[in-house]
Design brief:
By secondary structure, this protein is mainly alpha-helical. Helix content is 67%, strand content 2%. It has helices at residues 2-11, 15-29, 32-37, 44-54, 58-73, 82-95, 99-119, 144-160, 163-173, 177-195, 199-207, 218-221, 240-259, 263-266, 271-281, 285-298, 303-316, 334-341, 344-361, and strands spanning 130-133, 138-141. A hairpin with a 4-residue loop joins β1 and β2. α7 packs antiparallel against α8 (144-160) and α13 runs antiparallel to α15 (271-281). The protein is globular, with a radius of gyration of 24 Å.
């Protein structure tokens, strides 16, 4: 039954059917026997990444994000998928066109934090008096110093995964009320958890961080020496390597659209334009697509074969998100994050948003 539902999630023509099938899969993932026997063999994660980047229907993308969040909570995402997982969360939270998908991405970041806290020994929202340390291979006492070290490790990982930069960008630039509210709830919950153990005050005093003082995170500064991280343009600088890679991907996609587009596009192109587009593309694989398009225009084949060929071409042209997309948000270090949220102008903006949201409800 699981395989049939998974096939429906991938291939059904109705978006509501695909969305409902994904919702069923979300429940199946929590059942270990079903996962081990069937779902783990179906490349579910790859399909979810593809849906979240290519699916035009928002209702399907929303359900795909919920499934991805469940997989992360159940620790069903393989280590080889971690980069594209963080990139997908960052892309959906910042660039998706539907607010429910953005909200789902921010909630998925919460699942990341839950897993990190669990890895550091937190149980049911609190640290026990003692825990077993895998690094030291012995039982350690969780005093204030040890807890602060574990919080620092968690925050550094969130910074390196792009989470802190994504949240600040959502709070600063997003125009969807629901997204801003979710980002604020995320921030409030994180700060409350850290304040429970007086972590922010301790780390601020240790690093001498004030609202007007910014320190670079040593774990990220080596990778971002050319990035200006002052508060005014902290969220506007992208990794040059990533930008170049994305530009090349856009170029290739445009050339592919010209050469291997549908019949309605091809009929407006003469042979010289097709040849020029092939030469500009620098990709010999496009030659096969052009030949296939030419044969399809000249030979009136069977309609079923034509439909299958069109579907195959569409599958080959599906975009894939850059696995290091999230790195453009890693220039926000832990110190910078705390300094930004404690800045008077940032707090004032948050207060004004609260007043505005409250006025909307009245």
């Amino acid at each position: 039954m699981c395989r049939y539902i998974y096939d429906m999630a991938k291939n059904d023509s109705e978006p509501y059917v695909r969305a409902s099938a994904l919702r069923c899969i979300s429940h199946f993932i929590s059942i270990d026997d079903i996962w081990e026997i069937d779902l783990c063999k179906q490349n579910v994660a790859d399909h979810l990444f593809d849906v979240l980047y290519n699916e035009p229907e928002a209702i399907v993308r929303k359900e795909a994000m919920d499934v991805l969040c469940t997989m992360n909570l159940q620790r069903k995402i393989a280590s080889r998928h971690k980069d594209i997982f963080y990139s997908t969360l960052a892309y959906c939270a910042v660039s998706d066109l539907h607010w429910e998908v953005k909200v789902g991405a921010i909630r998925c970041w919460r699942s990341v934090i839950c897993n990190l806290l669990s890895d550091e020994g937190m149980i049911d929202g609190v640290f026990p008096p003692v825990t077993f340390s895998k690094e030291k291979r012995k039982i350690v006492q969780l005093n204030e110093k040890e807890i602060n070290l574990r919080f620092t490790k968690m925050m550094n990982e969130l910074s390196q995964q792009g989470c802190l930069g994504v949240i600040l960008k959502c709070l600063s630039e997003d125009c969807d009320v629901a997204v801003i509210l979710e980002a604020k709830a995320f921030l409030k919950r994180l700060v409350t958890e850290l304040d429970k153990y007086n972590y922010i005050a301790t780390i601020t005093a240790t690093d001498n961080v004030t609202p007007n003082t910014i320190h670079n995170n040593p774990t990220t500064s080596n990778n971002s020496n050319d990035i200006n991280t002052t508060p005014d343009n902290l969220l506007n600088k992208n990794d040059s390597m990533l930008k170049s890679a994305l530009n090349e991907a856009v170029k290739l996609e445009k050339n592919t659209d010209i050469v291997s587009g549908d019949a309605e596009t091809a009929e407006f192109l003469d042979s010289d334009e097709i040849i020029e587009s092939i030469l500009d593309s620098k990709d010999f694989n496009l030659l096969a697509d052009a030949y296939e398009q030419s044969m399809r225009n000249n030979i009136k084949g069977d309609t079923d074969e034509s439909a299958a060929s069109t579907q195959l071409r569409a599958d080959n042209e599906r975009r894939t998100i850059h696995p290091f997309y999230y790195r453009q948000f890693t220039n926000v270090s832990v110190s910078e994050f705390f300094a930004t949220i404690k800045r008077p102008d940032f707090e004032e903006k948050i207060c004004k948003q609260d007043e505005w949201f409250y006025a909307m409800k009245i």
